[in-house]
Amino acid sequence: MITSVTVDDQLKDVSPEEPRILIVGAGIAGITLAQLLRGRGMHPVLIDRSADSGRMIGDNRAGYMLALMPMVDPIIDELDCREAYLESSVGIDRYIAHAHTGRVLRQDRLGDLLADYGDYRGISRAALLDVLTASDCSIAFGTTVTELSEVGATVTLAQGGHGGQDAEHDFDVVVIADGMNSRTRGLVTGKTALTDPGKNAKPAATGADVPLSVSAVDTTWGGWVCWAEADDDQSAVDEILADGFFLGMYPVKDGIGVFLGCPDSRQPLGPRRFAAEVRSRLTVLTPRIDACLTAVEEAESPFFWPLRDSRAHRWCHGRTVLLGDAAAGFLPTAGIGAGMAMESAGVLAGELSALATRPSTASSAGSSVAAEPVAALERFEARQRPRVEAAHDNSRSLARLMFGRSRLFAFARDQAFRVISIRSALKPILQLLESPPERM
């Protein structure tokens, strides 16, 4: 259960024998890390800029539907919430690929493909946060970081939203987990140049004093997101890949998450008119496709999700570390972002737990003991960043295949989908599942 607890009250529970850890952002990555550490007897301070828990969980603009691959299973088991997880989600068994006309190109048994590794399940973001916070979860709401020292030891927090009173605190570790457009990330000092790793990449920030080199890929596509009612086949994911539009239909408990994608230049048309245009172009209209297009047409101000990603080429800076979307914000093309965020939280929890038997170093930054949190964060980055970037690369590769505008490209892609197996398309992800990170 989420409870509103101030920073000062959370700090009262921290003993001198454990590190003082600040987690910025109560999203999937931040909550997962906080709950893992609390389950291991530690007391991290968790803050979020949302005014309250209802807004944090109820605002689905931050993510509607999630497909969670088996890398989350060890996290679910450690948090002892498997029963709630299964009850709040649906098992995904089949992937159905449709041609640009709506005709079924192929069906693949995703459940069979992933069965050796664990569960593959569809869940809403709100439901997942409810599952992760089934046990007590203290959060200081309306709290943001306004200043961060170079090594991350001293943090100034604004409590009570904008205009709130600032308070300075010392921490051994600061975990920045406040999303792809992280406000806190930009506060880390240093002078590392921005990079541009590809012709479609754009800097995610500007300025000469940005320490953690961040790049972004802009697909020049986006899409409207809404909910449709559940149907009789909640174990199947459907996707239509066409010339100039994309329709994805993703089951969760008691509903179907709908994503209707288009080039950015088509956004001004609006969801109702664009959905009607897509309907007119399809020669095969299944009941699910019809219902999902109707949901877009009838949705009140559906959120338009720009398809951009973000990658920080360095996660650690002193005692500050990036986690989840703040480190690597994924395109939704491989359905792996939330799973990698939870896996990364598990790896980081292991490294931080090893510090729990040592005295806090927050007031002894000049000692050799103070270097231990830095070493722990560097080990975490060395272990996890290659895995995250492999999945990130896979999402980018799939985006190039999924988002096309020409009829010729759509035709060629339809032919390719007949021969390319789902195993080949997800090979990088399967390799990650075959060699999970060592648990600590």
Automatic annotation (TrEMBL):
Asked whether the UniProt record includes Amino-acid biosynthesis among its keywords, one would answer no
Keyword match Metal-binding: no
Keywords assigned by UniProt?
Answer: Monooxygenase, Oxidoreductase
Provide the GO MF annotations for this entry.
Answer: FAD binding; monooxygenase activity
Start and end of every FAD-binding domain?
A: 128-355
Question: Known InterPro entries for this protein?
Answer: FAD-bd, FAD-dep_Monooxygenase_BioMet, FAD/NAD-bd_sf
Give one Pfam hit by family name: NAD_binding_8
PANTHER family from the UniProt entry: MONOOXYGENASE, PUTATIVE (AFU_ORTHOLOGUE AFUA_6G14510)-RELATED
* Stated name of the protein: 2-polyprenyl-6-methoxyphenol hydroxylase
Native source organism of the sequence = Brevibacterium iodinum ATCC 49514
